[in-house]
């Protein structure tokens, strides 16, 4: 009986491990638009933190279909699609911004077409952040 109990525990632990691991080894979801190569899962949380006041504003964005709490999801997703989901490739908008020092940190966590990513960058003020990231941070 002493030998049976440890064996039962090992089998139960193995079964639990397989059960918990199975969802992570399943095949990836089908493409959102067959033949387009676009993964079905594009979702991100966008947060802007004003470092002086501590004020935090955030929104969520999902592309393909374009929705969530972002006020302009189509425009924001178009900017990201044009950059291939790479925030460093977003074309900045050339506009004058005031020389006001009110730093903001933009943090984006999420998935672009199934691949996880994180983006974080500090800007001298919100105007510069919006000019750099376009409609993505306009909320």
Q: Strand order across the biggest sheet?
A: 2-1-3-4
The number of strands is 4
> What is the CATH-assigned architecture of one domain?
2-Layer Sandwich
Structural class: alpha+beta
CATH class of one domain: Alpha Beta
Give the count of helical stretches.
3
General shape: globular
> Which spans of ≥5 residues are poorly predicted at pLDDT below 50?
1-5, 11-38
Q: What is the oligomer described by this structure? A: single chain
State the separation between the terminal residues, measured CA to CA: 65 Å
- Percent in strands: 15-25%
Please outline the major beta sheet.
4 strands, antiparallel
Order of helices and strands: HEEHEEH
Radius of gyration: 22 Å
Helicity range of the residues?
A: 25-40%
Could you name the CATH homologous superfamily of one domain?
Answer: Subtilisin inhibitor-like
Annotated CATH topology of one domain: Subtilisin Inhibitor
Average pLDDT score: 81
Descriptive key words:
139 residues; disordered N terminus; 4 strands; Subtilisin Inhibitor; alpha+beta; four-stranded antiparallel beta sheet; 3 helices; 24% strand; single chain
Describe the structure in your own words.
Helices cover 29% and strands 24% of the residues. The chain is α+β, with helices and mostly antiparallel strands. The chain has a domain of 91 residues: 2-Layer Sandwich (Subtilisin Inhibitor), CATH 3.30.350. The protein has a 4-stranded antiparallel sheet. One of its GO terms (molecular function) is serine-type endopeptidase inhibitor activity.
């Amino acid at each position: 009986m002493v030998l049976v109990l440890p064996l039962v525990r090992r089998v139960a632990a193995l079964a639990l491990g397989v059960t918990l691991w199975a969802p992570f080894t399943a095949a990836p979801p089908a493409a959102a638009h067959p033949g387009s190569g676009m993964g079905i899962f594009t979702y991100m949380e966008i947060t802007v933190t004003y470092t002086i006041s501590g004020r935090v504003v955030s929104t969520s964005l999902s592309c393909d279909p374009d929705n969530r709490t972002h006020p302009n999801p189509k425009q924001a997703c178009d900017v990201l699609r044009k950059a291939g989901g790479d925030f460093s490739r977003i074309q900045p908008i050339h506009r004058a911004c005031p020389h006001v020092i009110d730093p903001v940190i933009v943090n984006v966590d999420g998935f672009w077409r199934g691949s996880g990513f994180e983006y974080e960058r500090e800007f001298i003020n919100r105007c510069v952040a919006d000019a750099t990231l376009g409609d993505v941070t306009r909320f």
